[in-house]
Design goal:
The structure holds 2 protein chains of 2 kinds. Chain A is of the alpha+beta class. In chain A, the strands form 2 sheets. A 5-stranded mixed beta sheet of chain A has the order 2-4-5-7-6. A two-stranded antiparallel ribbon of chain A has the order 1-3. Chain B is built from 11 helices and 5 strands. In chain B, helix 5 links the parallel strand 4 and strand 5. In chain B, helix 7 crosses helix 9 and helix 8 crosses helix 9. The chains are: A alpha+beta, B alpha/beta.
Chain lengths: ~325, ~230
């Protein structure tokens, strides 16, 4: 069989990039500008196959956008619940900057300005300004609308950044967070902000679940480890009232909420993010009381080996 | 005795011989904030010491010097407000200036009712903080002076016999010797004798002074023999 398919450059590009293209327009161009075989060639048969999957690609893109919008809405909702502690966190370095600047002025206005002191204070101002900027960047990361990235990540770093982010929130609610992070976990591949969104969401849920617990008994235990199936696993347990058994089935459903003013998308988004990362998330009650959430995601080496096993598509 | 080379005390040294220089205890979990407050105090010559938590302050061996505390309201562990309450419960009087990132009205009311000198919100102007600190130090010095007087009066009072204490209570109440004699069922001469002993032992030349000393005594002592 001497089968040959020649297609116009524009069409080929659209197909390989899997971009939706205007089929009718391309078809027109194709008909006018191209012969099916080159001069001098004598092909026995020429088969041309064109599949119009514009609609499917458009639908997929729409779905991805809706997913991104929802996860963005969930991030904003979490941030909204944390405004007081975010404001407090930014005020700390600003307060130090203002105080150090005023003290510097005092030293400069003295009859014999103490320049050594001023230099020391000014370098502290620089440090605090840098810190304030870092906080703002971190919040912008969380609040911004952005396409998910897919990079290599140290999972414990991701967790630790979340703990830093929530430090004031947990202090404010008198919650002690105890973290046991297993060192030297293999790297994972994914989107830092999305994974942080999941972790922050789970921690904020736990903090809220302990609102009515006595202040001395508000604890969150966080653990990272490598589980039996070689997935990096994250678990969080609180000392709250746990999950009512009748809610266990619906807990990851969209728009299911027991919180007043809650959207009910937090855990649904968490599940969708973890699934996109090739992992899964479960909820349970701990035998000693309190809710227990656990998720695990494959490591980079696993993703690579599973890809290798998949038969080549071309 | 070498009068010629006799040492001349500077005003400051004379003062420090009587009472140590004030010390400000700064408690804030944020290191940058804590350092910035200590630096400001240092720039105007006020000694200070910083602590990351109220627990760290309690664990530290802080010299008993006049001064005040600058407390952040919310900190990990025991918060500033709880610390203020526990100090009061243990009978420790401290001049406290609160400095907080977000002060709401109930919080301010609680702090001020419990005797805080000032409740300031971050970021604070340097002069505002220094004014508050100076006022707090002044209040603490006043309290310490009062306490010294009370201690001295108490020491003198403790040299009195029970009968003399009874007579003293009656005298400062304004009772005449005749009344006291009747109340205690003793002779008027004996009352007068006790009364002069009280004046001598309490080191007071005048009755008005005796009344003042009496008022400086702790309440429980004053009620010991009240009828």
């Amino acid at each position: 069989m001497n089968t040959r398919l020649r297609i116009s450059f524009g069409f080929e590009e659209a197909v390989t990039a899997r971009k939706p293209c205007n089929f009718r327009e391309l078809h027109e161009k194709f008909r006018l500008n191209h012969r099916f075989h080159l001069a001098g060639e004598r092909p026995s048969t020429t088969i041309l196959v064109m599949i119009d999957n514009t609609a499917r690609l458009e639908a997929e893109a729409k779905l991805r956008k809706i997913e991104a919008d929802f996860s963005h809405a969930a991030r904003l909702s979490t941030l909204g619940e944390m405004t007081t502690s975010i404001a407090h966190e930014i005020k700390q370095p600003l307060s130090a900057i203002l105080m150090n600047a005023q003290t510097s002025l005092r030293y400069l206005r003295k009859a014999e300005p103490n320049l050594e002191k001023v230099e020391q204070l000014t370098s502290r101002i620089v440090e605090s300004a840098q810190r304030a900027n870092d906080i703002v960047v971190r919040i912008q990361d969380m609040a911004g609308k952005r396409a998910p990235a897919n990079s290599s990540l140290e999972f414990n770093d991701v967790v630790q950044q979340c703990l830093a982010f929530l430090h004031h929130e947990s202090d404010d609610k008198h919650v002690t967070i105890k973290a046991a992070l297993q060192p030297n976990l293999p790297a994972i591949r994914g989107d830092r902000i999305q994974l942080q969104q999941v972790i922050v969401n789970l921690i904020v849920n736990s903090i809220q679940a302990m609102k009515s617990a006595p202040e001395t008994q508000r604890e969150i235990h966080i653990e990272t480890s490598l589980d039996q199936s070689n997935h990096v696993s994250f678990s969080i347990r609180d000392t709250g009232i746990g999950i009512p058994i009748e809610h266990m089935e619906q807990i990851f459903d969209g728009f299911f909420t027991t919180k007043e003013g809650g959207l009910g998308i937090g855990l649904a988004i968490c599940q969708s993010i973890i699934n996109t990362h090739g992992g899964n998330i479960t909820a349970a009650n701990h035998p000693d009381g309190g809710a227990l959430f656990r998720f695990s995601i494959p490591t980079i080496s696993e993703v690579a080996s599973s890809k290798f096993q998949t038969p080549a598509i071309d | 005795m070498n009068i010629v080379t006799g040492h001349v005390f500077s005003a400051k040294e004379t003062r420090s011989r009587l009472e140590p220089e004030p010390l400000v205890l700064v408690v804030d979990d944020d290191e940058a904030v804590r350092l910035s407050i200590c630096e400001l105090l240092d720039s105007v010559g006020i000694d200070s010491e910083g602590f990351a938590s109220t627990q760290a302050l309690m664990d530290a061996d802080v010299l008993d010097r006049p001064g005040c505390m600058i407390l952040d309201v919310r900190m990990p562990g025991v918060s500033g407000l709880d610390f203020q309450a526990s100090l009061a419960a243990n009978g420790i009087s401290a001049s406290i200036v609160f400095l907080t990132g977000h002060g709401d009205i109930p919080m301010t009311v609680q702090a001020m009712k419990a005797g805080a000198v000032e409740f300031l919100t971050k970021p604070v102007r340097d002069q505002t903080l220094l004014d508050a600190v100076n006022r707090a130090i002044g209040i603490d010095k006043g309290k310490r002076a009062e306490r010294r007087t009370a201690d001295a009066s108490r020491a003198l009072y403790e040299t009195l016999t029970p009968r003399e204490r009874q007579v003293m209570e009656a005298v400062v109440r304004g009772a005449l010797s005749k009344q006291i004699a009747f109340e205690l069922n003793i002779s008027e001469i004996t009352v007068k004798l006790h009364r002069s002993n009280v004046m001598r032992k309490m080191k007071t030349p005048f009755l008005t002074h005796l009344v003042r000393v009496w008022q400086s005594l702790p309440e429980d002592i004053r009620h010991e023999y009240s009828s």
